[in-house]
Design brief:
It is found in: Cell membrane. The chain has 92 residues and is mostly helical. It has 3 helices and no strands. The chain has one domain.
Length: 92
């Protein structure tokens, strides 16, 4: 791996960490439940992107598989939360 790519990866991880901190603030401070659900969904996306960048950095397929699982569970969780906020129940 080149030095340039290593610096870009470290910079992107720092930016993702900052975005996660700002999203956590919105998750706890959010004025409405919809804002909190969107913040949780965005945390899922940031976690998945962090795992993908770490997979590139360490050249390991395990990180890519973990990112796929985070994306899958994040989608299902967001769908369940949206359905709960809409109807008040998840299972009909």
């Amino acid at each position: 791996m080149s030095a340039w790519l290593d610096h870009v990866i470290v910079l992107s991880l720092a930016i993702f960490a900052l975005a996660m901190l700002l999203t956590l603030y919105r998750l706890f401070k959010g004025p409405s439940a919809q804002d909190r659900v969107l913040a949780l969904d965005y945390l899922n996306i940031l976690g998945m992107l962090t795992m993908l960048v770490l997979g590139i950095r360490y050249a390991s397929e395990t990180y890519f598989e973990a990112a796929l699982l985070i994306a899958l569970f994040g989608f299902v969780g967001s769908f369940a939360l949206a359905k709960f906020l809409l109807r008040g129940e998840v299972i009909e």
